[in-house]
Specification:
73% helix
């Protein structure tokens, strides 16, 4: 009951922010978000009640009835947007502002992730691993043909949630590390896009003439989110693959490594658009040396952390 109340409060707290603009698309996103989250919370409550009915145990961290374990896994998957319950997430992000999309991608994922960590030993491992692999595959595949940056970040989030959940049964600490680093990089990218008012790829292509340094740091952060080796984003993927190999799941580790190449393609396309290409406009229209939005003071602090934490990996792991 406490978990259900907490998830409902979490849902209700973000709804006014999504519907703040009073645009029809925002109202549609709000309705979708509310219905999906309410259904997932109710499913979680139903899972606990079914387990209590059959075993007499009310604690959701000690589920032993198999149908209850399946229901709990499905409820948390809906909350997080894991495949095949991902349909609501890109649409809700597309109907929200960039800052609200940032909150939906990071802060709103924390309560379901916490419940996932607490109940990880009660979940169905086969179902969770299957949904994780499908999420990594679909997050990369669906992001290939997108031109809206919010939808691209939504499919990026689906893919990263797949990486987090695939390892949670074997090493929950790695899930937390992956979530923290993903949050760090995502906050940096969304704040940068909010500063340059980037909602699609053509706008991203024109951002170089407005803020060259900001576009360069955005490129590095995107490559870090893709998981390229010298950057911070490589750390969680490296450790997750290493842990899967230790658990003698080499086939699974190889599969998700190959599937992450799909995500790498659209990250490279975003990086390419932000720094290398320029839109086919006359130069007098491109010379916009100032932006309407002031640069957020968090960006200079978050960007170096999003790109250069890899040398600190040994210290982070010992802590």
């Amino acid at each position: 009951m406490a978990a259900w109340i907490g998830l409902e409060i979490n849902t209700l707290s973000i709804i006014p922010l999504i519907s703040k603009s009073h645009h029809p698309r925002a109202i549609e996103a709000t309705t979708k978000y509310f219905l999906v989250q309410a259904a997932a919370s109710t499913l979680l409550l139903f899972s606990g009640m079914t387990n209590a009915w059959c075993t007499g145990q009310w604690d959701i961290t000690q589920l032993s009835y198999p149908p209850s374990c399946l229901l709990l896994t499905a409820a948390i998957a809906i909350k997080l947007g894991l495949t095949p319950f991902h349909f609501w997430f890109p649409e809700v992000l597309q109907g929200s502002s960039l800052i609200t999309a940032l909150l939906l991608s990071t802060v709103m994922k924390l309560p379901p992730t916490t419940i996932l960590l607490i109940t990880s030993h009660s979940l169905n491992p086969t179902l969770l691993a299957s949904m994780s692999i499908m999420s990594i595959a679909l997050g990369g595949w669906m992001g290939l043909n997108q031109t809206q940056t919010r939808k691209i970040m939504a499919f990026s989030s689906i893919s990263h949630i797949g990486w987090m959940t695939i390892i949670i049964i074997y090493n929950p600490k790695l899930t937390l590390l992956a979530f923290y680093i993903y949050t760090l990089m995502t906050v940096s990218i969304f704040l940068t896009m909010n500063t340059t008012n980037t909602l699609n790829l053509p706008t991203l292509m024109a951002s170089w003439t407005k803020t060259p340094m900001l576009s360069t740091t955005l490129m590095l952060t995107l490559l870090s989110l893709a998981g390229l080796p010298p950057l911070t984003g490589f750390l969680p993927k490296w450790l997750i693959i290493q842990e899967l190999i230790k658990q003698e799941l080499t086939t699974m580790a190889t599969t998700i490594s190959l599937l992450s190449l799909l995500s790498l393609f659209f990250y490279l396309r975003l990086a390419y658009c932000s720094t290398i290409t320029l839109p086919p406009n006359p130069s007098n229209k491109m010379k916009q040396w100032s932006t309407k939005n002031p640069t957020n003071s968090l960006i200079p602090m978050l960007t170096p952390l999003s790109t250069s934490l890899l040398p600190l990996a040994p210290m982070m792991l010992t802590i």
